[in-house]
Each structure stands twice: as structure tokens, then as C-alpha cells.
Design a protein that fits this description.
Length: 250
């Protein structure tokens, strides 16, 4: 949309006849720039494929000018389409991996974009000078590549900074989750030991007394102890089910 916005602003100074004549070229320009930006849809899932798609589609610009499909007064808006390369290089820094794997991205992008712009200018006839076209192209290409490489390197570094920050936040979240799980396991172990202690105090000790008195033939005391053991068991089970009922009510 950015190149088209520039084109529409400049087209305000054109005559109605010139605008009607340039309308097909503007539509074709819109189609080329749409195809050029389309790979950015995959910049998160496949950043390298998105970058290569962006660089490849930019090479449609020189043939479009050479074949006369896009006239010179419209082709100048191709330069604003370089914003797509900037976004693709930034995406490589954020989603493409570490610096050791993604450092060639800004170099390749700078060389490719500079070559496309110089080739488009050559086709438009803007590289005429005292020397040959090739010499002029080289003279224009070198400083252009250096400048674009600096811009791409800065964006790539910014993307790496965002990537490192995200990884640091994820590491902190993983650490917090691991700590929470560890504390939950310790709390569960402590609850199991507490329940085991209650079971031993409330039931097992009474059962031992019950068996001993049964051996001695003290049946009345056996019955009383059995009732006490059942009451203790009932209270223990009631204490276990009460938190569950409260949680269900909430």
C-alpha cells in the first residue's frame, strides 16, 4: 500500500489523460507489489522461505520495465516496495534462529535489493554517464549496497534482540512453572504423610487395642473399642470429603 499511496499523491499533478493512460500500469504495479509482499504471510512459520520469496519476486521489476508494461514514471514507485525486504530481514532475526544461523540474511538481502534497484535503473536508462553503463552500475551499486547492508544489519540485530528477550521470558516462565510443580509435589507428599499419621493414630492403634482385648476375652471393651474405631474412621473420611465438597460449592 505504501508505494501505491506515493503513486496516488504524485498522480494528483498529472492530467486526466495522463492518469487514464497510466492506470493499467498502476494496476500492474499493485499486482507486482502484492506478489512481492505475499511471502510475508509465512514470516513466522518459515522466515527463510518468506525472505527468499520476497527477494525472488523483486526480480520481476526489471523485466516489467524492460517489456514496457510499467513505464518509467510509474516504475519509480518500485523503490518504496523495499519496505518488504526490511520486514523480511527483521522476521529472520526474530523467528529464524540464532545469530550464527541467520547472519547471512542481511548480506544476501542487501546484495539482492541493490542489484534489483541498479538493474531497474539501468533498464530505465538512468545510468547514462561519461563512462559505460556497466561502470556506472558498479559505481552506483557499491555505495548503495553498503548503505542497505547497514540498514538490514540494524534491523536483523533488532530482531535478534526481540528474540533473545522472548527466550528469556520463556525461560523465566518455565522456571516458575517448574518451581510451582515442585512445591505442589512437596505439598502432596506432606498431605500424604499427614493422612497416614491420622490413620495410624485414629484407626490402627485402636485396632491393635481391639485385637489385644479380644484375645483377653473382654468382649464388652472390644465392642466399645470397635465403635470408637469406626467413629474415628468416619471422622477421618468426613475430614477428607469436606474439602472436596467446599471446592465443588465454590
Amino acid at each position: 500500500m505504501l508505494p501505491l499511496a506515493f503513486a496516488l499523491v504524485v498522480a494528483e499533478d498529472w492530467t486526466a489523460a495522463s492518469l487514464r493512460g497510466a492506470l493499467p500500469a498502476l494496476l500492474f504495479l499493485a499486482a507486482l507489489l502484492t506478489v512481492h509482499a505475499l511471502p510475508l504471510l509465512w514470516r513466522r512459520r518459515a522466515p527463510w522461505a518468506a525472505l527468499l520469496g520476497v527477494l525472488a519476486t523483486s526480480w520481476l521489476w526489471p523485466p516489467a520495465v524492460a517489456l514496457g508494461v510499467v513505464p518509467v514514471r510509474v516504475s519509480e514507485f518500485f523503490d518504496a516496495g523495499a519496505l518488504t525486504e526490511l520486514l523480511a530481514v527483521y522476521a529472520i532475526g526474530v523467528y529464524g534462529g540464532g545469530a550464527d544461523r541467520t547472519w547471512p540474511a542481511w548480506i544476501v538481502s542487501a546484495v539482492s535489493l541493490s542489484s534489483v534497484l541498479v538493474a531497474t535503473a539501468a533498464v530505465e536508462g538512468n545510468l547514462t554517464g561519461a563512462g559505460s553503463v556497466r561502470l556506472t552500475a558498479v559505481v552506483v551499486f557499491v555505495p548503495l549496497a553498503v548503505v542497505t547492508a547497514g540498514v538490514f544489519a540494524a534491523l536483523w540485530a533488532a530482531g535478534l534482540g526481540v528474540r533473545r528477550r522472548r527466550l528469556r521470558i520463556l525461560a523465566l516462565d518455565d522456571h516458575a512453572l517448574t518451581a510451582s510443580l515442585w512445591h505442589a509435589e512437596r505439598a502432596a507428599d506432606a498431605e500424604r504423610w499427614r493422612l497416614a499419621a491420622k490413620l495410624r493414630d485414629a484407626v490402627l492403634e485402636r485396632t491393635t487395642v481391639l485385637v489385644e482385648r479380644a484375645r483377653q476375652g473382654r468382649l464388652e471393651e472390644v465392642a466399645a473399642e470397635a465403635r470408637a474405631a469406626l467413629t474415628a474412621m468416619r471422622e477421618l473420611l468426613h475430614g477428607l470429603s469436606a474439602p472436596e465438597r467446599r471446592g465443588g460449592e465454590e
